[in-house]
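re: ur question from earlier - yeah i can do the single chain one, its not a big deal. heres the input i used so u can compare w yours
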Amino acid sequence: MALMQIEGTSEFVLTLFNFKSGLNTRDVETLIRDYELSGGRNFTYDSRGGLSIRKGYAPMNISAWGANPIKGGTGYYRTGADREEIVSAGTSIGTRVAEGTAIANLKTNLSGNGERFAFHQYLDHLFMANTTDNLMVYDGVNAVYDIGYIIPASNCTLADGGAGSMGAGKYYYKITYKYIDGESNQCAADVNITIAASKQVALSAIPTGSAMVTGRAIYRTTAGGSVYKLLTIINDNTTTTYADNIADAGLGADIDVDNIYTYIRPCKYMVNHKGRMWYAGNPTYPSTIFYSKSLSPEANPALYFWDIGKGDGDVIAGLAVNLGALVILKQYSTWVISGDTPVGTSADMILENVNPSIGTLSHWTISHAGNDLLFLSPKVGVQRLKRIILSDTESMDTEALSDKISTTINDDLQQSILSIAHGRAWNNKYYLFVPALAATACNLAAVLYLSDLNPEDESTIRWMVHDNQVFSSSWLYRDSNGEHLHAGLNSTGYIFEIDNGTTDDGAVIQAWAATKNFEFGSFMTEKVFRSLAVSGHASEDYEFSVREFILERNYDPTSELAYKFSTEQHVHDFKGGGVVSDEDVTYDEIVYDDVMYDSESDYAASEKDFLHGDDMANPGYKLKLKIEDVSANQDFVFYGFEVRGFYGFARII
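and the output i got, formated as tokens:
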């Protein structure tokens, strides 16, 4: 802002030609700066701080996939196959293949009805979890199955195979199933055979498994021994016979009996890190994180776990990987596991409590923004995890980007259900979807602009609020045109693409923005406002209004001081474009294009900067301006205001 008093006169000029600081958001510093907004809805900021109407959203599927809200979604990208968009609603999981316009059932009859889903892809497999069903896996080919390397239900049948090279004695056999990314434990049933020297053993009825089984491994003891060693691997799921003529010296490695999955099945958060899957959210062990074998994501040996602040009364609320470390966010603390290997002789991973007071309210608000992590804390503020400091301070560098979201959106939040909030960083913005007012589902998005963000300078923390954001889940989806922000409708089974089109699925977008109250350098002096000018840029027809709020002092014979203050409102209407006569819109292509034109915006030749003016006729002590009722296309940009007037006499109030 530039407030200038013309030398030698009582005249003043107030110029405000950008809103680069966005909404005033942090209640630590309540002072509203000149370039901040006191409120706003549905505008976006350009690089100069100009305001333009946000884009809308459009459905990806033609008809609703059922009558339940979509509670989770993700992109699934299997090597050599069409991309899929996986979503959940009610008691079903569905898929939208490639850029299709319909969602097909992938799995139905879930135990959990309407639960939120977390998704994570690793090794071409998509891991899926809610709060009720077992953690599930989808491989893009077979039906969705419960996590875990299922063991054979039976053993093989043994018989004397005739002459051979095996020694005399008693031999025991076990069968395991091989999977594309791991191996099961051995079958429970025991079978054995005693043979004479120089014999072999005929195996038959070797069990076959589900469609996920890629082969079977056969293990055998030495003659009279008790340790099972690898005999052979059958690299198919059909062969049911094998002739064993291997001497004891030819057996391989000992059998691995630690491929269990008991503790990871009920988990609801997961992430891959250092070649392993990490799981948390087991309701019986809410402060424990479990991890898999290396490159075997469905095997969790009995001792492969880490207690995270066990007994502190807190629970794990989310997982993420950032800057080479595993970040474990409880509700009221943050922990980090650094290093490369958790077990064995080369184990070097360490666990640190890097912040004992900051955690997350919801796993679904955690999102990467470059090298940073953004998340919503239980204090109802957005935090940025900028970097992890372990070597010296064992601490975490976090910065508050909004101490209270309620301050940011200037509405009452439904704090009792705020755990349903969700957020994603996309296109240099962080979209945080929250429930406000009397809503029972998310209906607003608080949008943080990440470009040029420097929390040490609060004026760079720019927020805007988008209403009519009626989504119960959000996720990123990649296709041939790049990365997109998708969201699941909170009423029925529709996927919507954010930032698509000029309406919210046909509904007109209503945008407004309001400045602070300006005192013009003196709160005692009455000001006489004479003229208002507005400036912007548009390509076609447009209309908008500027509402002025003037704090006036009026005579009141009933008051002890004979005066009272009131806020009076006056509206100025402006319009322009191709169908409006030239005298209704003035512009100077040379002057204004030199000052305002931004070549990076790639404006068409038909677009012009506009300048409008109108008279003001009311004196007052403070002035607040609000742009509203904007009717324009997406190329409309509002730059700011200029107010002229003169100072009256100072009066004792």
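Confidence is low (pLDDT under 50) at residues 579-606. not sure if urs matches, ping me
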